[in-house]
């Protein structure tokens, strides 16, 4: 039990404290503070709109002047991307942004939990000066090639990399599905060469185990495309192992797909209970209610901290205010706005903040957060002890008496 606790503590701390040193084989947004809904745009600009007319003239003028005066080479696509990015950035909202076609593909891979690569977690080890394998993903090409935790990456396709080159190395490992990448690894005093074929890898953001007193534990690190399905599978797994109560760990979970958070909330809420309220720019209110009968009836505790955000807060609010779970930990982040990802004709997309969401009792979340039922501040100076998890276990023990 002590070792399991320690592993969980390190997992939480890693999310919060050393994210700057860790990357997947994609540019990760594991902790991105986002609740995303995908839509396809059929928007046709209003040619008579005064802003549209001004933009047409000014953008055309600047483009012509650059092509006419600038002494260097000009890439037309980059000019367009830069202009569109500037428009989005000028809104002044940190969640509203423009993605080029290439950036969009990476964003979708990250958000949906799928990408093409070999399936490794990496970090730059400043002590050894090398990029190091933290872990290989289950069922990934890297696992099948017997790449191990602790292996140091010396070269990728004969190109040498150091710890400071983490981002470049990570990008190099990515590539087209079915192509090969050659890694030169150092394992202890031995040098090993591995040739790995890239393929689509699914990142499993949901994991589970059984703790003392038949307490089931499920950790969700982000709400990707398959999160609802993965959560149900892990719940069934701990149920078959005899779980009588449940801890859901949302610490460090920065959000993800709204529909996935609501799908999980439906498992814990009674049919037709309100799980989310959203209000758009025009003040139009939309109320979401649970669509199915309650599946999970056992006592539930949810763990939260200051990095529990967005879609995570939707789930927390739904089960807390419908009195289906108690919350243990620290106040959540307070990101209560939803973005829509709107696909554009050039292959890029606009992610724009389009609505604010509220709890079932219509309490504000944005810039406020959600207070736990049992406030426990994590002691970062003592990584051997997870007082938040211990409190969650204590609460569930009391309920089982």
Sum up the structure in keywords.
single chain, 401 residues, alpha/beta, 2-enoyl-CoA Hydratase, Chain A, domain 1, Pdz3 Domain, seven-stranded antiparallel β-sheet, seven-stranded mixed β-sheet, 22 strands, flat
Commentary on this structure:
The chain is α/β, with parallel strands linked by helices and 401 residues long. It folds into three domains: 2-18 and 30-35 and 203-400, 2-enoyl-CoA Hydratase, Chain A, domain 1, CATH 3.90.226.10; 42-110, no CATH class; 115-202, Pdz3 Domain (Roll). 31% of the residues lie in helices and 29% in strands. The protein has ten helices and 22 strands. The protein has helices spanning 2-17, 50-69, 76-89, 101-112, 141-144, 166-173, 227-240, 258-268, 311-321, 387-400; strands at residues 22-23, 34-40, 97-99, 114-117, 120-125, 130-136, 152-156, 159-160, 180-187, 190-197, 199-202, 206-211, 215-220, 245-249, 255-257, 274-280, 285-289, 300-304, 326-329, 337-343, 349-358, 374-375. The strands form four sheets. Strands 1, 5, 6, 7, 8, 9 and 10 form a seven-stranded antiparallel β-sheet that branches. The longest helix is centred in the first third of the chain and has 20 residues, at 50-69.
Chart the SSEs and their pairings:
Elements: H1 2-17, E1 22-23, E2 34-40, H2 50-69, H3 76-89, E3 97-99, H4 101-112, E4 114-117, E5 120-125, E6 130-136, H5 141-144, E7 152-156, E8 159-160, H6 166-173, E9 180-187, E10 190-197, E11 199-202, E12 206-211, E13 215-220, H7 227-240, E14 245-249, E15 255-257, H8 258-268, E16 274-280, E17 285-289, E18 300-304, H9 311-321, E19 326-329, E20 337-343, E21 349-358, E22 374-375, H10 387-400
Parallel strand pairs: 2-15, 2-20, 13-14, 14-18, 18-19, 19-22
Antiparallel strand pairs: 1-5, 3-21, 4-11, 5-6, 6-7, 7-8, 7-9, 9-10, 12-13, 16-17, 16-21, 20-21
Helix pairs in contact: 7-8, 8-9
């Amino acid at each position: 039990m002590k070792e399991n606790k320690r592993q969980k503590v390190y997992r939480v701390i890693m999310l919060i404290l050393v994210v700057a040193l860790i990357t997947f084989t994609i540019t990760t947004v594991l902790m991105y503070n986002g609740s995303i809904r995908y839509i396809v745009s059929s928007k046709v600009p209003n040619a008579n709109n005064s802003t549209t007319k001004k933009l047409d003239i000014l953008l055309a003028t600047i483009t012509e002047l650059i092509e006419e005066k600038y002494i260097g080479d000009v890439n037309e696509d980059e000019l367009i991307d830069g202009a569109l990015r500037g428009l989005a950035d000028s809104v002044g909202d940190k969640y509203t942004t423009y993605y080029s076609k290439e950036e969009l593909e990476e964003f979708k891979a990250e958000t949906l939990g799928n990408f093409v690569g070999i399936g490794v977690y990496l970090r730059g080890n400043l002590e050894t000066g090398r990029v190091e394998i933290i872990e290989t993903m289950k069922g990934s090409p890297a696992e099948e090639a017997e790449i191990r935790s602790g292996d140091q990456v010396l070269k990728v396709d004969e190109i040498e990399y150091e710890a400071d080159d983490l981002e470049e190395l990570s990008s190099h490992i990515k590539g087209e599905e079915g192509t090969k990448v050659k890694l030169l690894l150092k394992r202890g005093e031995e040098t090993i060469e591995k040739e790995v074929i890239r393929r689509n890898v699914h990142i499993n953001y949901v994991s589970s185990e059984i703790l003392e007193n038949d307490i089931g534990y499920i950790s969700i690190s982000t709400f990707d495309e398959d999160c609802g399905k993965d959560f149900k599978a892990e719940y069934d797994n701990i149920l078959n192992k005899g779980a009588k109560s449940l801890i859901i760990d949302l610490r460090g979970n920065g959000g993800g797909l709204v529909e996935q958070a609501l799908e999980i909330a439906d498992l814990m809420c009674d049919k037709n209970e309100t799980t989310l309220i959203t209000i758009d720019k025009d003040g139009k209110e939309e109320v979401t209610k649970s669509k199915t009968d309650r599946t999970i009836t056992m006592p539930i505790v949810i763990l939260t901290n200051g990095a529990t955000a967005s879609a995570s807060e939707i789930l927390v609010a739904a089960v807390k205010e419908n009195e289906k779970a108690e919350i243990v930990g620290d106040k959540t982040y307070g990101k209560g706005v939803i973005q829509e990802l709107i696909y554009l004709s050039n292959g890029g997309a606009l992610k724009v903040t389009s609505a604010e969401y509220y709890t079932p009792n219509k309490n504000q979340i944005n810039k406020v957060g959600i207070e736990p039922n049992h406030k426990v501040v994590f002691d970062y100076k003592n990584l051997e002890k997870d007082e938040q998890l211990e409190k969650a276990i204590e609460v569930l023990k009391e309920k089982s008496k």
